[in-house]
Amino acid sequence: MAKLKITVVRIGGHCNMPALVGDTFYLDDYKLQIPEGKSVCMWALQSMMTLFPLINERHCLDEDHFAKRLEHVACPDPDGKVIYRVETVEDDPD
């Protein structure tokens, strides 16, 4: 699996996690890499989990598949309105 970088890009409500714009974590070889002192909401993570394999395998998908255009995912909490950007990266997070 390619390394994925997940970044908080917008908070349109109240996140009780608390997530902050710019917070980033990585998924590398099926392992979460979360910076020390930070956390990831399990509900937001759970909503993204089914998309990670699709994002990782975009190159194998038909051109009209929605995952080819997928750049952002939303936390399922209607009060938080937290939007994450998911990117494939080549370099180390450190």
Structure, described:
It is a single chain. This protein has helices at 42-49, 52-56, and strands at 3-11, 24-28, 31-33, 72-74, 82-89. With 94 residues, it is α+β, with helices and mostly antiparallel strands. The protein has a domain at 1-25 and 79-94. It has a 5-stranded antiparallel beta sheet with strand order 3-2-1-5-4.
In short:
The chain is α+β, with helices and mostly antiparallel strands and 94 residues long. It has a domain at 1-25 and 79-94.
The SSE order reads: EEEHHEE
Number of strands: 5
Structural class: alpha+beta
Strand content: 25-35%
Give the N-to-C terminal Cα separation. Answer: 19 Å
Shape by Cα distribution = globular
Extract low-pLDDT stretches: none
Q: Output mean pLDDT.
A: 84
**What is the makeup of the main sheet?**
5 strands, antiparallel
Number of helices: 2
* Strand order in space, largest sheet: 3-2-1-5-4
Query: Whole-number radius of gyration?
Result: 13 Å
**What is the helical fraction, as a range of percent?**
10-25%
